[in-house]
Amino acid sequence: QVQLVESGGGLVQAGGSLRLSCVASGRTTSRYVLAWFRQSPGKEREFVARINWSGTSTYYADSKKGRFTISRGNDKNTVYLQINNLEPEDTAVYYCNAPSVEGKSYWGNGTLVTVSS
User: Fold this and answer.
1) Is the pLDDT of residue 27 over 90?
2) What is the DSSP letter of 65?
3) Bigger pLDDT: 26 or 7?
4) How many Å apart are CA 56 and CA 52, to the nearest integer?
5) What integer pLDDT is reported at residue 92 of this predicted model?
6) Are residues 67 and 85 in contact, defined by beta-carbon separation less than 8 angstroms?
7) Strands (E), the chain
8) Would you state the pLDDT for residue 41?
9) What is the three-class DSSP state of 37?
10) Cα(59)–Cα(21) distance, rounded to whole angstroms?
C-alpha cells in the first residue's frame, strides 16, 4: 500500500507560480516512479510529468514542457511540481500518481489549483 497526499494548491493570479507537493508513505522501501496528472473541469485526466526514483530522469507531456518542472526530494518520498507563469487554462485538480508499485497504481486525492485572469 502507498498513500499519496498532495498539497500546495490554491487560488493564484495568472502569471504567478505555485509549487505542488506530494508526500508518499507506506511502501516507501520500494523504488518507484512518481507522476503528476491533472483534470480540468469537464475534461479527462491528463498526464503532466513523471520522475524516476533517483530523480535523475524526468519526462513531460509535450504541452507541459517549459512551464512545469517535476523534482524529487532528497528523501525520495516527496515529489514536487513547480508551475510558472500560470494560465487560467491550468485551473485543475492536480493528482499525484505512483503508476506501478508491485503491480498496482496509486492515486492521491488531488489538490485544486485555480488561476484567475
Assistant:
1) no
2) B
3) 7
4) 7
5) 98
6) yes
7) 2-7, 10-13, 18-26, 34-39, 46-51, 58-60, 68-72, 78-83, 92-101, 104-107, 111-116
8) 92
9) strand
10) 17
